[in-house]
Design goal:
297 residues, alpha/beta, Arc Repressor Mutant, subunit A, D-Maltodextrin-Binding Protein, domain 2, 2 domains, two-stranded antiparallel sheet, 11 strands, 39% helix
């Protein structure tokens, strides 16, 4: 058994299909299938069970998984030691909700790229939770700490959100002096059955029951607010990117949420991943503080 066999085994275990593993490895699915069959024959054990959704780990595969992951960590550590402590290179994938990915990560990753030109940084912006066990990302930013999985979690920073509307919309519609006045205004928010984390159910805290225009992406919601489609809850750190959008009822409706940095537990042994996590954490804290300071009190 060699490392290349383990690499293919891990790719199928994480991707759960031959095609997904092939895309990760840069080879065709049929090659992946042949390599897995050869590995199973060499070990005398079935590592995977074919299911309607793809490939599931068989009991023997589940027993092999931690050993394959340990080999991966050891080889990564050896490569890091040979490169030296100051050089960060290779591919680095960050998963984040689209608000963070759109308005914070580009600036933060620009600085990390400037400091470490050998890095290839990928930002995956999706309104859902990321599965780090399947290595959908190397690090993930979440809006709540996960309660299950072999993960390490650290709080990054709090951030604030307020009700907001465009100046044109506010000028053309009845004044807003209190929550009761919201009944005569169109509201913008998340599609209710696509809220993937209770922390994102912002409008529930305003007492609003009906959403006139909705999207699963906060960037789309903010553009709708800028276009004068109605009022919505906006991240304070996003307001500097939306000229003409103003906060309303700041004394009555003010929300605080938190970002959390989530890593696979095994990555705590990787000096490279620790340095990347530290750079990302410090950058996000500073960027939230910088952008929120631009918003008028």
């Amino acid at each position: 058994m060699d490392w290349d066999d383990m690499r293919i085994f891990l790719a199928v275990a994480r991707g759960e299909t031959l095609s997904a593993a092939g895309r990760r490895l840069g080879v065709d699915a049929s090659t992946v299938g042949r390599r897995i069959a050869r590995l199973e024959q060499a070990l005398g054990a079935n590592l995977f069970l074919k299911a309607p959704q793809g490939y599931e780990l068989a009991p023997e595969g589940l027993r092999l998984l931690p050993h394959a992951e340990a080999a991966e960590i050891a080889l990564t550590g050896a490569a890091e030691a040979l490169r030296g402590q100051d050089e960060l290179t290779g591919q680095f994938r960050i998963g984040a909700p689209d608000g963070c990915a759109n308005y914070l990560l580009p600036q933060v990753c620009a600085k990390i790229s400037e400091d470490h030109p050998g890095l290839e940084i990928q930002i995956v912006a999706q309104p859902r939770l990321f599965n780090l066990t399947r290595r959908e990302a190397d690090l993930a930013v979440g809006v709540s700490p996960p309660q299950t999985g072999r993960l390490t979690v650290q709080k990054l920073t709090d951030y604030r959100l307020h009700l907001a509307g465009s100046r044109d919309y506010l000028a053309a519609h009845p004044p807003i002096r209190g929550r009761a006045d919201l009944k005569s205004h169109r509201m913008i928010g998340y599609i209710p059955d696509m809220i993937f984390d209770p922390e994102l159910d912002y409008l529930a805290e305003t007492g609003v029951e009906r959403v006139a225009l909705s999207s699963n992406a906060v960037s789309v919601q903010l553009q709708a607010i800028r276009a004068g489609a109605g009022l919505g809850i906006v991240h304070d750190f996003a307001i500097p990117f939306a000229p003409g959008v103003e906060r309303v009822l700041t004394d009555e409706i003010s929300l605080t949420r938190s970002f959390w940095l989530i890593r696979h537990a095994d990555d705590r042994h990787s000096a490279r991943m620790t340095r990347l996590a530290e750079a990302l954490a410090s950058g996000l804290r500073a960027e939230v503080a910088r952008l929120e300071a631009k918003v008028s009190p």
